[in-house]
Structure formats: C-alpha cells, structure tokens
C-alpha cells in the first residue's frame, strides 16, 4: 500500500493503526488458496435534538468508532466487527471472519473476485465546516423559528415537533487488492411535524429535508420556512379530509417524494443479490419489457449533495448513474462486487451498509423516474375520477412476487379533472411490473425529494433519495374506508 | 457477581463520579456488553458466518433542568471521561425544561426479581451444531413439497449480554440475558407462475426452548404454499380474522398509542380515554415483564423503575397509560414505566377453526404491509395478504388487497377471541375476529 502522508495520518489519528498493520490483518484473514478480504473502519459523530411543545428536548450525541472485517469466498462470506479498534482486536475479528473458509470446499476460479481499476472517488459533498461544530444555539434558534412560523400559519396548529440531526462520519476501506479509500461523509436532516386540532379532531402534517451539506443548507433560501409552512398547511388541510375511497381507480402522483413508488415497485426487485439468487419477481427478465415505454428509471449515486449520493460506495467503488429501465425495457441491476462477480457483471457502486457492525449488500442510492412530456395540469385534467397524492409516510415491497404497498398521508380527490376535497390517508397496493405497465402519462416536472428518505433491508437502514415527475397510473387499488 | 458485571459496575460508578466532578446535578448511565453469532445457510451450504463482540454506553447528564445525552462504544477510561465532560458542557449550553429530571428516589426498584433470563448451556453449543440446525430447518422446508422451488435460506443466531444501569440517586441494577433464534424461508411456485415466499422462526431465551428445525421448516413451507395462486377479490365490507401474528401486530400498534408521551402531546387516539370503553368488553390486555424465562422479561425498566404485571385493558376499558418520569410530571401522574414486556391479549375460549367456521364470507388475514397506521387518529389502512373464507372454511388465497378501518372501531368490534395464545415473542396475541373492515380490491 502506498498512501499519501495525509491519508496515513488520518487513519492513524482516527483509529490508532497504520496501513501496514491493516495489511497484516488482511494477510491474516486471506485463505492461502482463495478469497477476498476487506476492512471497513468508521469513526464519527451524530448529534440530534428535537423541539416539542415549545421547548427543546435534550441534545443527544452518538459517537461511532469501530471496524468490520469481511472475508468473501465465492458466494460465501464471513464477518466480524470490533468496537475497539486495535491490531489485536482486528486480528481476532479477521480470525472469526476467516472461519467461513472452514465451511467452504473448492471454489471455481471464475467465482472468485478479481481486482479491477477502482476509479477515482467523486467529490459530491458540500463540506466547508462540519455541521457538528455549528453552535447549539444556532440549532435551537432554527427550531424555535420553525415553531413560530408554523403556529403563526393558523391558530388551529396546537403543537409543532421539530427534529434536527447532523452527522459527520469518516470511513476507510482497505482490501486485499491493496486499495485504501477514505470518504468523509456529512449528512444533515430536518423534520417538522405539525398537529392541528379543531372540535376534538386531530390531524398531522409533515415536511422535512436535508442531504450531504453544511448546516447553512437549512437557512439558505429560507428552506426551513417552507418546511414549517408545508407541514402546517398539510395538517390544516387534513382537518377537513373525508374518508378515502376504496377500490381500483386512477391515481396521479405529484412530483418528488412520491418516487417512493419507484423505490418500492421497481427498485428493490432490481438489487443484485435477489436476482443472483433468483428470488425477485424481476429475476431472469433482463432485456424484457417490464414497464410502460414512458418509463426510464435510474439509480444515481453522483448527484451533488443528495442524501443518497456517495463519493464511493461501502466497498470503495466510485458510484455512478445506473440505468435500470430504459423506455420500459429492463437494462440493469444494482450490484456490489460479490453479486456482480457471480453474475459475470461489474459492480455499479451500489454496495452499502448501515455501519461497521453490518454486512454490506446491494442497496439503492437516489432512484427516480426520468421526466416526460406532459404538463402536470394536463395530467390532472385528464382524470374524471381518481386521487392525487403528494405525501407518503413510506412503503414496502414483497420482493418475491413484486407486490408493493405505499401509504398516502396527504391526498386529494380528482373529480372531472379538478382537485376537489382532501382525503384521509390510505394505502395504495399493486404489483411492481403490472403497475409500471399502467403508467399512462409522465410529467415534465421531474424532481427529487427534499432529502428525508431512509430505506430498510435485512434490518439495516441507509439514507436514500427518490424522485419522479407528476405521473398518472391507471387501475391502482386504493384502500380507503369510503365507498 | 462475575468479573464482567464487576467491571461494568465499576465503569458505571466511574461515570457517575466524573459527572458530579464536572458539575452534573444528576445523571444516569447504562453499559452493556454482548457476544453474538449468526449463521446463514442457503441451498444446503453455509453462506454467511458472523460473529461479534460488542459493547456500548449511554449517558444522560442533568445540570439543573438542562440535560444532554451521549452514547458511545469507546469505553476506555480516558475517552469516557472526555465524553462525560463534553456531555455536561452540552447540557449547560442547552435550554432548561421544567419537566426534565430523574425519577424520585423512592420510586426506584428496591429488590430485583430473579427472572431466569440467562441460559448457561447456550455457550456450550458449538458452531457446527448451529450450522446443522440451520441446514436441517432449510432442508425440511425444501423437502416439504415439490412446489418449493427456491430458498431464502436457514439461519441460527444467538447472543448473550449483560446490562448495568446506574444513576446519581443511588440506583444500581444489572442483569444478564441470552437469546437464540432458528429460522427458515422458502419460495413456492406452481407451473412457472408467480413465486410466493414463506418463512418461520422460533426464538427463545434458552437453547432447549427452540422448536425443532423440522417443525420450523415445515411451517415455513406451509406459509409459502398456502399463498400460491393468490387472487384479488372485489371491494367489500366483511368480517376479518387476524391470525396470531397479525393480532400481535395490531396489539402493539394499539398499546403504542397509550404511551404517556403521545398522551401529553395529545397525539394519540387514546389520549383522555382512561376509564373509557376502548375495546370489546371481554378483551383483556396484559403487560408482564416478570414472567420467568420469557423473551420480554427484565427486572427493571429503562429508568430503573420497578416492573410488575399490569392490566392495560380490562372489561374493554383502558386502565392506564404507560408513563415514564417525564410524561408523569407532564401529566401530573406517578410514573409506571413506559415500556412493556410480554405484552399479550388474554386467551379466549374459541378455537381458530370455530372462529373461521363462524364466517360465511370474509378474510383470514396472514400478512399486512406498509406504514398505513396513524396513531393520532387511529386510522388504519394496510396492504393485505390472506385466505378468503367461504361458508366457514378457508377457500382460496388472496393478495393485492387492502384492509381499512379505525383501530378503535376494530378493537371494539372484536367478536371472538381465540384460545391459541403462545408466547413465541415478546408481544403475542391469539386469533381475533373483527366484525367488519373495508376490503379494497377490484
């Protein structure tokens, strides 16, 4: 390993080990005949605080420092981590990870990982000053101001809950090909929840945003104010919401965050591990039509400052813009090294993990449906009866059969081409490949969400982005209580 | 007292004394250490082998009414001292909250019950036995039927850990615990049609308490196979039977809304409902963290408060909120712990067959998906999978439908309670029949 003095110094100051020692640990983990090993070291701080009922709740700090050692042999892997990084503990973790070799017979050479040009890490984050170091007072003032603006929006706003979280993590990835990659990752997040109350009825409205930015992102162009007002408006609108209808109908999704649909209906099913194992509804469909020709779907890791963007993935591979579906045809999977290799492909820079305590796997970054031709007005006008949904707490998918659900929290009835009444939250359910065939109009207003998404898979949570333009989908089942 | 416990208690005492030295007026600290092993097999071969030794510390400092907290895994004395100092400084910079503080000294648990949470025999189970069990569970599932076409694998995991909790008001408590789990998951398909997955697991504090690999595998296969050929039904209002897993999930959502934090924020459909009818009149909801050897048991709660068996709903009436010391001061009530353990609905007198038999046209619910529960209003709308009931019998599988209602209406509409209560996790319920819900489909 030939590292720049500054990198060597960073590793030593954060973890108290040298690159030569990391090399020794990797050497102790590699089986003499085969295998790949990497060490993922992570150190950093997350600070979070919240505001509720007009007062600040205690600030809470989470200090993370540790390392995970992984040994990969063909389609098998061993993993172990330590919360106390030193050479002894790393070697003990390596020994545990290496035990996978005892349960592995000879592996065909083509199943073994090969070194390839790692490429140059991107420079996607806006990090002048770490958001951790911003004064507590500035963070408190932000929350107080949001509380005031939201309450001033309407006297029926009875409570405002604000949460702010700022993070600064450094990861070092060293592997048995001799790569040593460092990535310093900031992440900030703001969430506003308003509770409105009238005649005993209570409703909530939510908004939020963030990304890989400095703290000032929240105050630039009065972003905080927009979130305060959006949350307040949604809560007030919901006070007069009627029961959501039930049954199959046309659904129009607004731009941005409703891209959760793409994440659930398509994204998860195109992760490399499920397809390698043949357990996804999209398995063996490469090159086939899986969506309407209006649909081009991309998973993009290189959008500057976005919550799901990364300079390198958690195996040190630079991220990229990966086309998953082009004009309705399945073009690509999201891959990490292991699954790509076993499928005769290259990593797409989609390998991620929650922390050093977790095994890495293929995950999404920023997943979106690309923009089309129609104007949003045209799309709404085209619907005789249906719903228009803009706000979603989230969704879920069953990879195996492709059935997905996602739930609206702010939606409106469309009657004769016009938005009429607000409706209560309801779950929308469908089948990924089927629903994507029924996308009948795609708007020209594509945008990404404000930076609030988190994705769960196999018990691990990672930050992601989603996006879409206004979209019309026919025959979606809406699970309201109304007739 | 063993060495680990001594070492962690001494670290906790160090934290409390440092906190005082740096000017904290009150503080609490919990320290834990654990070891875990996870084995994954797929298609008869070992696929994943994970082992970890972890530790962590959580610390909360108060300076008057101001507070701050930190958690860290860096437990060297020097790092811990620095962390304590920084946390106290952060508390000082923070804003005061008149309701902040530790529980009153007289409220802490005095004697800690012995709950049999640790199985020393787990340590003697070698890795090959664990691998064999995972393989057997997967093999049993795959062998169950030719329509089982693929596998999500089998797995065994276990962990042993020790927790110490101490505060500046003199409470010190600790307990050790073990847990283990065995699972299998497979995919079924018929005539190259769509795949359906099914999985099952068994969890226990003791190795001997696990179900056999054969039983777990057979159940995983059954759960995949029974959804083959699932179809969509028409939109209609019908009675819905919640299987025990779905009933437990509904129970957790319902009781979550009784948390004192939601109540003082008025962000719950149960706020203001103590003493009122919130469920069918024969429904009893019990919280009992003192059950010996059970997965949800513990000798004291997260603030050092004592735990005991309590009724949350009796005669259909909400008996209490779940109140921590902060919510207690907000609501002017005595804290009674905001956490639950071995939460359950008391078993009723009907067999599941009898419950299904009582329905002419309805849904037997086996899975729900999505975040469609609103704890402010109680509105409930979830994606659903299940088996349609016709003339008192399970007739055919259904999917891509939703079930919707309001949780208060659902709890009040419980018409039959099953006799099939099994403590297979820390929140459990028997089969429940709900008189009507809106099912959306075609």
Verbal overview:
- The complex is a heterodimer of chains A (483) and B (442).
- Chain A has 483 residues and is of the alpha+beta class.
- Chain A contains 10 helices and 26 strands.
- Chain B is an alpha+beta fold and 442 residues long.
- Chain B folds into 2 domains: 3-225, PmbA/TldD superfamily (PmbA/TldD fold), CATH 3.30.2290.10; 236-440, no CATH class.
- Chain B is built from 9 helices and 17 strands.
- The model of chain B has no long low-confidence stretch (mean pLDDT 96).
- The chains are: A alpha+beta (483), B alpha+beta (442).
- The interface between A and B is large, with 79 and 75 residues.
Helices and strands in order:
The complex is a heterodimer of chains A (483) and B (442).
Chain A: H1 5-15, H2 19-29, E1 36-52, E2 55-56, E3 60-73, E4 76-82, H3 87-98, H4 136-153, E5 157-175, E6 180-198, E7 201-211, H5 223-239, E8 246-253, H6 260-267, H7 272-277, E9 297-300, E10 321-326, E11 329-330, H8 337-342, E12 351-352, E13 361-362, E14 366-369, H9 376-381, E15 385-391, E16 394-398, E17 403-408, E18 410-415, E19 418-423, E20 426-431, H10 432-437, E21 439-442, E22 447-448, E23 454-457, E24 460-463, E25 465-468, E26 471-479
Parallel strand pairs in A: 8-15, 14-25
Antiparallel strand pairs in A: 1-2, 1-3, 1-5, 3-4, 5-6, 6-7, 8-26, 9-10, 9-14, 10-11, 12-13, 15-18, 16-17, 17-20, 18-19, 20-26, 21-26, 22-25, 23-24
Chain B: H1 3-21, E1 26-42, E2 45-63, E3 66-72, H2 77-93, H3 127-143, E4 148-167, E5 172-188, E6 196-204, H4 213-225, E7 236-242, H5 244-256, H6 260-264, E8 285-287, E9 310-314, E10 317-318, H7 325-331, E11 343-345, H8 352-357, E12 361-369, E13 379-390, E14 393-406, H9 407-412, E15 414-417, E16 427-428, E17 432-440
Parallel strand pairs in B: 7-12, 11-16
Antiparallel strand pairs in B: 1-2, 1-4, 2-3, 4-5, 5-6, 7-17, 8-9, 8-11, 9-10, 12-13, 13-14, 14-17, 15-17
Helix pairs in contact in B: 1-2, 3-4
């Amino acid at each position: 390993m030939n590292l720049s003095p500054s990198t060597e110094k960073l590793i030593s100051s954060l973890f108290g080990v040298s690159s030569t020692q990391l090399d020794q640990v990797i050497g102790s983990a590699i089986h003499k005949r085969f295998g790949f090993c990497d060490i993922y070291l992570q150190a950093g701080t997350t600070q979070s605080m919240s505001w509720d009922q007009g007062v600040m709740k205690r600030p809470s700090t989470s200090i993370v420092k540790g390392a995970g050692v992984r040994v990969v042999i063909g389609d098998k892997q061993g993993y172990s981590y330590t919360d106390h990084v030193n050479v002894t503990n790393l070697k003990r973790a390596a020994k545990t990870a290496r035990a996978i070799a005892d349960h592995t017979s000879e592996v065909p050479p083509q199943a073994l990982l090969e070194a390839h040009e790692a490429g140059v890490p991107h420079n996607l984050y806006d990090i002048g000053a770490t958001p951790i170091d911003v004064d507590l007072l500035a963070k408190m003032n932000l929350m107080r101001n949001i509380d005031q603006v939201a309450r001033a929006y309407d006297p029926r706003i009875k409570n405002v809950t604000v949460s702010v979280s700022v993070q600064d993590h450094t990861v070092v990835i060293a592997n048995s090909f001799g790569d040593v990659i460092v990535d310093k990752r900031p992440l900030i997040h703001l969430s506003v929840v308003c509770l409105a109350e009238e005649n005993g009825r209570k409703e909530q409205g939510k908004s939020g945003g963030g990304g890989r930015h400095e703290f000032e992102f929240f105050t630039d162009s009065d972003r905080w104010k927009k979130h305060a007002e959006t949350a307040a408006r949604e809560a007030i609108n919901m006070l007069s919401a009627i029961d959501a209808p039930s049954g199959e109908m046309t659904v129009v999704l607004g731009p941005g965050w409703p891209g959760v649909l793409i994440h659930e209906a398509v994204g998860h099913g195109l992760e490399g591990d499920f397809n390698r194992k043949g357990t996804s509804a999209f398995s063996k469909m490469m090159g086939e039509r899986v969506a309407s020709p209006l649909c081009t779907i991309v998973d993009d890791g290189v959008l500057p400052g976005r919550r799901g963007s990364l300079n390198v993935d958690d195996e040190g591979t630079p991220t990229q813009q990966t086309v998953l579906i082009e004009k309705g045809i399945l073009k690509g999977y999201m891959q990490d090294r292991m699954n790509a290799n076993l499928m005769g492909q290259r990593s797409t820079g989609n390998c991620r993990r929650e922390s050093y305590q977790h095994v890495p796997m293929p995950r999404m970054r920023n997943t979106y449906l690309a923009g089309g031709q129609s104007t949003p007005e045209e799309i709404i006008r085209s619907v005789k009866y249906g719903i228009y949904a803009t706000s979603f707490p989230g969704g879920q998918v069953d990879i195996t059969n492709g059935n997905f659900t996602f739930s609206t929290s702010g939606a409106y009835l469309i009657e004769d081409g016009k938005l009429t009444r607000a409706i209560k939250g309801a779950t929308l359910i469908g089948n990924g490949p089927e629903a994507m065939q029924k996308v009948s109009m795609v708007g020209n207003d594509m945008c990404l969400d404000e930076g609030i998404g988190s994705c769960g898979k196999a018990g691990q949570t990672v930050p992601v982005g989603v996006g879409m333009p206004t979209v019309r989908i026919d025959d979606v089942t809406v699970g309201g209580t109304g007739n | 007292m063993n060495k680990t416990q001594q070492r962690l208690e001494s670290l906790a005492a160090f934290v409390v004394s440092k906190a005082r030295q740096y000017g904290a007026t009150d503080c609490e600290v919990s320290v834990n250490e654990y070891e875990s092993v996870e084995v994954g097999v797929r298609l008869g071969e070992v696929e994943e082998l994970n082992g970890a030794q972890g530790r962590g510390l959580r610390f909360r400092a108060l300076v008057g009414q101001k507070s701050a907290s930190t958690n860290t895994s860096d437990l060297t004395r020097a790092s811990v001292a620095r962390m304590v100092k920084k946390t106290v400084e952060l508390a000082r910079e923070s804003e005061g909250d008149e309701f902040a503080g530790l529980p009153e000294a007289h409220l802490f648990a005095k004697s800690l019950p012995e709950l049999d949470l640790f199985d020393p025999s787990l340590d003697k189970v070698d890795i090959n036995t664990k691998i064999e069990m995972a393989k057997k569970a997967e093999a049993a599932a795959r062998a169950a039927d030719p329509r089982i076409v693929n596998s999500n694998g089998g797995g065994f995991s276990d962990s042993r850990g020790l927790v110490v909790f101490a505060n500046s008001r003199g409470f010190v408590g600790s307990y050790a615990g073990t847990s283990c789990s065995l699972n299998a998951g497979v995919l079924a398909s018929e005539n190259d049609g769509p795949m359906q997955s099914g999985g099952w697991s068994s969890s226990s504090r003791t190795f001997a308490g696990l179900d056999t690999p054969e039983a777990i595998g057979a159940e995983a296969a059954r759960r995949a196979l029974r959804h083959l050929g699932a179809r969509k039904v028409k939109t209609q209002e019908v009675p819905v039977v919640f299987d025990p897993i779905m009933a437990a999930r509904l129970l957790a959502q319902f009781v979550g809304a009784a948390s004192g934090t939601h109540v003082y924020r008025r962000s719950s459909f149960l706020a203001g409902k103590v003493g009122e009818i919130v469920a069918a009149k024969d429904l009893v909801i019990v919280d009992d963290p003192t059950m010996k050897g059970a997965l949800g048991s513990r000798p004291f709660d997260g603030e050092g408060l004592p735990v005991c068996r309590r009724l949350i709903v009796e005669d259909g009436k909400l008996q209490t909120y779940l109140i921590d010391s902060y919510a207690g001061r907000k609501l002017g009530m005595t804290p009674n712990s905001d956490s639950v353990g071995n939460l359950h609905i008391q078993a009723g007198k009907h067999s599941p067959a009898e419950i299904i038999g009582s329905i002419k046209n309805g849904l037997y619910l086996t899975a729900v998906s999505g975040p469609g529960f609103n704890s402010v209003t109680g509105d409930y709308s979830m994606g659903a999978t299940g088996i349609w009931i016709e003339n008192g019998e399970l007739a055919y599988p259904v999917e891509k439908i939703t079930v919707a209602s309001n949780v208060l209406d659902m709890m009040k509409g419980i018409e039959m309670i099953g006799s099939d209560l099994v403590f297979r996790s820390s929140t459990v319920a028997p089969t429940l029949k709900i008189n009507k819900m809106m099912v959306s489909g075609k």
